[in-house]
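Each lists chain and fold; for instance:
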Amino acid sequence: MKQQQQSNIGESTRPYLRSPLLTGVTVVLGTVLVGSVLTTLLLRFTGIAEASLPYFTYAINGIALLSGGWMAGRRAGQKGWMYGGITGILYVLIVLIIGFLAFDATMRVQPFLFTVCATGLSALGGIFGVNTDPR
């Protein structure tokens, strides 16, 4: 009886998100935030030209989507491609909503291409994440 109570206490105090999608989107947004700060510091304190900024943006988004999909797939434990893909779609929706509300951006072909690439990258991360599940 004591052993069962101790395992319940340990499980309830673990500090992690239970939802695979929420975990994935949180990882994507956190990675984008850290990558953006590092890029800002690189541009400020080194001789890197601002013309190379799009390459940094693509790399940061790619790494963030792969890692977010990986975490979503790992948390889900099954159907990693689906959870990773949905994580990518949610990230794209967040970016499009922010772009529309903050910058009054209009719809063009680029958001569609961004959606396809983001869904594919995060689905690939989800596939890898399921295969590294510790369970």
About this structure: The longest helix spans residues 20-45.
